[in-house]
Amino acid sequence: MDHPLLTVLRDHPTRAVFDAAAGLLGAADPASRSAGALLLGELGPGFGAEAVPKLSDLLAREPDPVTVGWVIAALGRIGAREALGEVLSFTDHPDTRVRLQVAIAIPRLVDPADVDPSAASALRYLGQDEDPGVRAVAERAVHSGR
Question: For a Cys staple, 98 with which of 20, 23, 86, 93, CB 3.0–4.6 Å?
Answer without folding.
Answer: 93
